[in-house]
Structure formats: structure tokens, C-alpha cells
Amino acid sequence: MITIKDLHKSYKTGNNSLHVLKGINFNVSEGELVSIMGSSGSGKSTLLNILGMLDEADTGSYTLDGVAIKNLNEKIAARYRNKFLGFIFQSFNLINYKTALDNVALPLYYQGMKRGERMDKAKAYLEKVGLAQWMDHLPNQLSGGQKQRVAIARALASDPKVLLADEPTGALDTKTSYEVMDLIQQINDEGRTILIVTHEHDIAQMTKRIVNLKDGLIIDDTKVNQVRALQNV
Amino acid sequence: MFDLERWQEIFETISKNKLRTFLTGLSVASGIFILVILLGIGEGMKNGIEREFQSDAANIIYVFPGVTSKEYKGLNPGRMIQMKNDDYQFTTTENKEALEYKSSVYRIWGGMVSFGKESGSYRVEGVYPDYQFLENSSMLLGRFINYKDVNESGKVVIIGNRVKNDLFKDAKSILGEYVEISGIKFKVVGVYTDPGGEREESRVFVPITTAQKVFGGGNDINYMSYTLQPEGTYEEALASANKFTKKVETYLKGKHTIAPDDNSAIRVNNMLENTKRFYDLMGMIKMFFWGVGICTIIAGIVGVSNIMLIIVKERTREIGVRKALGAEPISIIGMVLHESIFVTSFAGFTGLILGLVLLDVVGPMIQTDFIYNPTVNFNVALSTVFILIVAGAVAGFFPAYRAAKIKPIVALRDE
Lengths: 233, 415
Hints:
The complex is a heterodimer.
Chain A: E1 2-13, E2 16-28, E3 33-37, H1 44-51, E4 59-64, E5 67-68, H2 74-84, E6 85-88, H3 100-110, H4 115-128, H5 144-157, E7 162-166, H6 174-189, E8 193-197, H7 201-204, E9 209-214, E10 217-223, H8 229-232
Parallel strand pairs in A: 3-8, 3-9, 6-7, 7-8
Antiparallel strand pairs in A: 1-2, 1-4, 4-5, 9-10
Helix pairs in contact in A: 3-4, 3-5, 4-5, 5-6
Chain B: H1 4-16, H2 18-54, E1 61-65, E2 83-84, H3 85-94, E3 99-115, E4 118-127, H4 131-134, E5 138-142, H5 147-152, E6 156-160, H6 161-168, E7 178-181, E8 184-193, H7 198-201, E9 203-207, H8 208-214, E10 220-221, E11 223-228, H9 234-255, E12 266-270, H10 271-314, H11 316-324, H12 329-362, H13 378-405, H14 408-413
Parallel strand pairs in B: 4-9, 6-8
Antiparallel strand pairs in B: 1-11, 1-12, 2-10, 3-4, 3-7, 3-11, 5-8, 6-9, 7-8
Helix pairs in contact in B: 2-10, 2-12, 2-13, 10-13, 12-13
């Protein structure tokens, strides 16, 4: 599903150049649930941003579902993001003046789907994350766990190839974190490819594979025995 | 623009950000509102002053006598000058070619005019037929004095509209009725109206010959008024008017033995000169109002730009989210602009309509001679609204464009 070869990325800060990614080679096949770990500054967020087409690599190749991702202009990047990717953020990033339902329907709006159709679809996804009766609530009327579930529903709405989660449980307490992880595991069980950036070991253990980054290089890439989140709730 | 989905999105955003929308709208609406009111008052002042001028012909020249202030040829100062019929005859015959309308006036002070039980004190003026044009009067009923009346010293009278309303109330027949002026019966042959309003309409006119005979005027006249033949340009008109008044002045001073440099004995009022001064003043006032109006609009534009800048800044994160979800840059720009144009045009037209309604309702109630019928050229107002909308769009475009250029990763980091 994802193929990365010799990926380099550096940031210029004044006269200094900060080499963040120093040649990442990395494959993810369909249906995997991968966690990317590393201390801060290891380059894990940069990697995720490049995977999410929010940032561009300096050199190296990136292929997503057979499509080479390179020389993107803003317009094509936006189209690819919409078509291939679903984002889940640490701080949820819901639009605060839109209801849960409208938030979930937003990626569908950018797909050009008609209003009635996208509302039906958004409703189905909210049902899937167990928030059907909350669909008319604004984000600030929801708890953290509920917000993240709305965000997950939104990420799923455009039926993406890959879900990218940046510290999805970073702002949640342990119990809620596990509930969210349970939902993510369920979605993975249905065959969706998911990448999670995290620095929490218990969360990483709930994925199927842990990739460890240090100083811009992958130092460890192992499959793990998945811990089901439901057992810990 | 006609994308229904986009409209739904805009309305959703607007309805959920009422305060923001209201504030944007307010600065636009108040800008347009103030401009409309200012232009209205400016126009009203222009109309008011123009109306003051229309009470008489625009190029009228008055010549009236005064009191000598200088000793001359053995005569003491302080001598009252009395103009006579022959002064009028001479000046009109001498300048026959140059004159358009002419009339001398013999005025009766404190004339009591009565009809039946009603009576009132009005200015009674003995005049020539041309006086109608000199006074810029027009007939509501009947006719003005004619040369036959003057030659035969007919006892006919033309009354002002105000006099008619006072004396005749709602009497059916007016023409052919007889009114008494200081006890002498005159037949009403016409009713006139004057753009100068009620003050000018509370007069009655009789033939000058009749007035002099009946009210003991002999050959006396109070003043003379003339207009000259129209000229091609204002400058030419002013030049020939000055030439004419100089000539009349010199003649009258010679005839009445007045020192040539005595300015108080013969006075000449040349309306053309005053008109120019008033039109210059009017131009200044108009320019002032436009200046204030344009400043208001600029303030409105700055206000809109400011708010647009804040809106975009405030929405940076939202824009980042939208981009991450697949919004193309053009759709971000479109969204921000569409919203701002919709809000500015809606608010602009609201301000325009409120301003026009206010002028329409309050305008006629204004009771001053200096403001009359304050209206706004609708096209001017409309184009200002469009200018404001375009300016708002341009002002909104740059922040929107910048926001659309921000990388979503940067926008999302923006806490």
C-alpha cells in the first residue's frame, strides 16, 4: 500500500540545516496497523506529514496505492489527500461552529457529493462510531473521547486507503484512550490500513507492528502480538 | 457563484458566526448609510439655495435709489433721491436693443386687500407686464397684467397664491371677482405662483399706471428692474450686465445731480454676480460633502479589510483542516471571498435602503429654507455600494490568498 525508498528531509533554520529524515526505507501493506514510535525530534511527525502529503520530501520516492507521489502542486495534493487519506489529529481539529454531522460530511463536500447524499453517509459513519444521537451537537458540547470519535468518523467518511493518526490519544485519559484504540482496532479489523504516531508504549502495543525511529533513521521494525484494547477498558 | 452547495456552506458559516457577520455588515451598512444621508443633505442644500434664486430671474438687475452721502454742486448730503417715470423711459429707450424684460415698480406700503369678510395686509406693486418674467412667476389661473391694462390704467389685479388662499378660502369663482385694495375695487384677472414660496406669493400686482393714479404716486417709481438679452457665455453676460449698469448709473447720477463717486445714492443689484458667488459656494459645499462621503467609504473599506484580515487569521486553523480534508486552494479563496462579498453586498444594500427611506420620510418634513427636497441620485448611491463590494472583495482577497497558500501543516500547528 505504502512504499518509501531512501527518504530524506531537512529543514533550514537560518544558516543551519537540520537533517530530520536521513534515508527512510519503509513498506506498509494493505490492512496493516502500524505504530511509529520515537522520542521527540526523531522525525516521526515529519514522516507522518510526508506520508500525509502535508509536507514534501527532499529526495526519495513515495508510492501510495501504486501512485507515485511527487511534484505535487497544492491542487493535486488536496485531491490526493481527499481521495487516499484520512487524518486523525491529537487536538481533534474539528471545525467548532459545525455540528458533529457537518464535520463528518465535510470531506464529502470536497468530493463534490450532493448534500442529501453526504448527510446520509455522514450519519452512517457517526452511527459506526456510536455517536448517532450526538450528531446535532457542536464539538464543544462533546467530551474529548467523543470528539476524537467524530474525527475518526470524519477520517473514514471519504473512504480513504490509509488512515493517518498523529498521537490520536495524546489528549485523552487512559480509559478514553483505550476506547478510541478499540475503535481504531475495529476499523483495522475491517481491513483498513492505519498508521499511528505515538510515544506511548501501551498504545503501540495495541498495533500489529512497531516502527522505531531515532535521529531520522528506522532503528527497529518489529511485528508484535496485538493487545486488544477492549481487554483493558 | 451559482454553486448551490457553496451557498449552503456559506449560509451555514454565516448563520453560525452571527456576531462576526453582524460586525462586518455594520461597518459597511453604516458607511453607505452615512454617505447616502450626506449626499442627500448636500443635494437638499443645493435645491434649497437654487430655489431661493429661482424666486427671481437669474440675471435680474435692480436699480433703486438711496440717500446721497456727498456734497455735490452746492447740494447737501443726506438728500433722498426719488426716481421718476422719465428715468425709466430714458433707460429703456436708450438700451432698447440690449434689454430682454423691463419694468419699473411703484410700491404701495401697507396695502389692505379684502374680499368679503376676509382681509389682509399685502405688498401691492404697480408693475409692467414684463414683471412676470422678471419675478419668475407663473400663472395658476387667468393672465398677468397686459399692455392694454397699463395704457388704460385698468383696475385689474393679479393676486399671489397665498393671497388667494387667505382671502378666497374655498370660494368657487375667483377670476372676475372684485377685491378691495385700500377701499378701491379691483377685478381679479389672474392668480400666480412663485418659486420663492409663500413670501413671494403674498403680493398683489396692479398696472403701474393705475397704481400711480389711484394711490397718489404721480410720476414716482420705487425701483426699476431689467434683464438683458441672453449671451452665449456667463462671462459675456456678466460683461454686458456690468456695461449696462455702469451706463444707467452714470445717467441717473447726472440727472439727479449726484457726485460720480457717491455709491449710496443709486444702488445697483446685479443678480448675475451674486449667482456666481452662490454657485461657487454650492460647489464648495458639494465638494465638502463628497470629500466627507469618500472618507466615510474609505473608512468603511478599511473596516471591511480589517475584519476580513481578522476573520482569515481566526480561521487559519479551520483552513488548515479543510485543506487536510481535501480543499483545494481555489476553493478556500472562493469560500472566503464568497462570504465577504455576500455580507458586504447584503449590508451595503441594507444601508442604502435605510438611507433612502430615511431621506424619503424625513426629507419632506425638514422646515428650513436652506434644505429642500433632499434626494440622492440613485445611480451614484448604487455605484458606491458596488465600489464598496469590490473594495471589500479586493481587501478580502489578499488575506484569503495568503491563507490558501499556507501549508496545512503550518496552519494546523497554529494554536
